[in-house]
Records
---
Amino acid sequence: MSPVYGTFLGAAEIFSLMRNGCDPRFLDFFSRDTCSQEEILAFQEFLFGLTTAEIKDLQKQNDRAAIGEDMVRQWSLKNDISMIQDMDDTTGFYTFFMKRHLVALSRQIGKLPGPHHTAEEYVMIHFIENYWKEILAVDGE
């Protein structure tokens, strides 16, 4: 999926995920009422392939309601940020996750604001916690 960016709300990107067969449980996780701000920011990083800091910087530098791919590309070149869309599928997929993972880990270690896990990690943590709760409930009966 290539991000549209726009207003950074992610509507076009979410519909693209749905069209391309994304597991609905992944999207359900980020649309629940109890979703934390960190989880929402991690999902935003997932949708746009940019860190929270990069998104804020991009929005600050472009005083517009909507931002297009060409603006993001110019901004990334000016700020020496490689665009994942320019990579082959395998390298792009790995880089897409690792970039977000390393930034989240550095925020976690430095106790800095922003998501301390990637979107995928938040989903897995939730799944594992709830899976074990279900298993323990069944075993405890």
Note: The chain has one domain: 11-140.
---
Amino acid sequence: MRKIYCIGETVYDILFQNGKAVESRPGGPVLNTAVSLGKLGEKVYVVGDQADDVIGNIIADFLAANNVSTKYLTLYNGAKSRMLLAFLNDHNEPSYSFYKIRTDDEIKITFPEVRHEDIVLFGSFTSIKKEVREDFVACMKKARENGALIIYDPNFRPAHIKLRDKVIDYIYENISLSTIVKGSNEDFQNIFESSTAYAAKDIVNNYGCINLIYTANKYGVNLFTGDFHKVFDVPRIDPVSTVGAGDNFSAGLIYALIKENVYAADLDNLDHDVWRKIIRVAIDFAIDVCMSYDNYISDDFVIDYVMNGRIKEC
């Protein structure tokens, strides 16, 4: 069975609407992706670090309950957990405030040995954190050498812009280590000040990755490969929350790549119809998550995809 390694931060999310806290739950981009994949029965690991406090234990228990391995999750005794406050506007689109982990321990993450059949998703702070950079890059280079499928999702939010000049070289290297770069129009605007999908594609290609998936909310999904460019429409919906939409697009992307038996070596010559199926599944995952406050796919959605075999029709 192919293994999926989701490298990044776990956090605890608190959602606000009209000035009041309305929901709270474990979150963070890689956790959201990993939980959806775990619910689907995939062999998935979260790779990162977190506090060994009450919130950290809630997160760890939640991961275990959703079939996500914490084998590569470093715990810091006496630390305080990361928190994310998401403030939903009138369109239920979030703006964020982040609160970093607080620990006196040395920052240390144990990275896995990634094989050619495995899939890696990475992004956010862990991928640009100086303290773990050397070990992280060594892991990614070895994974790339072994032929693994590597997906980079920057998750670079407006609050991160002040760090851009300090970490831009890390971001360029992350692109070069990837076989697919997937990000939102907001990510690429915040990182590169690029306002179009084509501008983002040129930058990503220039740093060594030919496969770009550029999501733009209701304006659709742009797929760029070495052979073609395709725009996929996104159905209009009335979302409850879009907090986990991008993360579950990633989950759907990974799930479809596995079900279509796609490996890194296949990407250069992947058929248009296979790509269509993959992107449509990713969009389905994102839409489902938008219909509730949860950051992960619903149980009904899991039944529809797994038991009813919906993916075969996409």
Note: The first helix runs from residue 29 to 39.
---
Amino acid sequence: MPFAAASFDKAVTINSTYFWPNLTAGLAEIRRVLQVDGTLVIAAITPEAAIEMPFAEYGFTVHDAAALEAACVAAGFDRIGITRYVEPLGDPPQAYGPREFYLLRACAV
């Protein structure tokens, strides 16, 4: 990323980790631009929910909670918390059932 080291105190990524060629390398780059004790938040669909989605057949890499946590640790984050949520059905109901997703919070060390 074209930013100096320790430029930010927060970073958020939503539904983008599926496209990264290397999860740990991408997280390490985010860590580089975060200040010590900076906060990272990741929102990502669960592998179980992704199977039902029409895009699943196109080679997206959907990570489970253990892989997300391990990559965060390897990239220089700690105090990692992962919560699993179910997105409620909308009105009108969605074509595919409720989507489960992770919300991960981690701190840069």
Note: The first strand starts at residue 8 and ends at 14.
